[in-house]
Structure to design on (197 residues):
């Protein structure tokens, strides 16, 4: 089993995250932000990556630190589980429909973090979660996990559907990218012999 974990303690947040890349999509998520919990649960279930995430954040100030730091910790745990990335598929792509919405997410576990974001929201909140933080979550997880990540909403109007389609698309793309490819024989999927840098 490829497992990773991280603990992150600052004056703003106290976080524990554990992941199992070879799981079945089991999750135990508690961030203090209901809609964020729902999205990380979607990520776990559709990627088949088991995720435990416990966050105690300074929500009396706002949701920024909890959102950002939980994504950083998740990315660090994913990176820990991937180790040298030997034998992985590396690339993943998903089209994710949800009713009237279609999202496309493409990932390269390259070790070179980069986010391309082509999505927008027409309301300020989903539940109690500030929608401006959604892009920031994806940016933070791509930076800490070393992902080249392209997220695009092709069309859609319902803000809940747009957000959920992005998370489910990310999940399905990651599921492809982290899976072991037996034809690679355990080799790192790069002509450099390593990923990153």
């Amino acid at each position: 089993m490829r497992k990773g974990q991280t603990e992150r303690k600052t004056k703003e947040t106290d976080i524990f995250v554990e992941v199992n890349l070879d799981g079945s999509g089991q999750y135990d998520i508690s961030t203090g932000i209901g809609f964020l919990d729902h999205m990380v649960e979607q990520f776990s279930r559709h990627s088949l990556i088991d995720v435990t995430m416990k966050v105690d954040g300074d929500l009396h100030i706002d949701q920024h630190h909890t959102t950002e730091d939980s994504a950083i910790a998740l990315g660090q745990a994913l990176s820990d589980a991937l180790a040298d990335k030997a034998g992985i598929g590396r690339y993943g792509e998903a089209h994710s429909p949800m009713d009237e919405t279609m999202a496309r997410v493409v990932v390269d576990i390259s070790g070179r973090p980069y986010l391309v974001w082509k999505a927008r929201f027409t309301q300020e909140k989903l539940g109690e979660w500030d929608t401006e933080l959604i892009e920031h979550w994806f940016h933070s997880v791509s930076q800490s996990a070393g992902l080249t990540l392209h997220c695009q909403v092709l069309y859609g109007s319902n803000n809940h559907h747009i957000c959920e389609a992005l998370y489910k698309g990310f999940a399905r793309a990651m599921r492809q990218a982290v899976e072991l490819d037996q034809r690679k024989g355990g080799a790192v999927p790069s002509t450099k012999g390593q990923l990153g840098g």
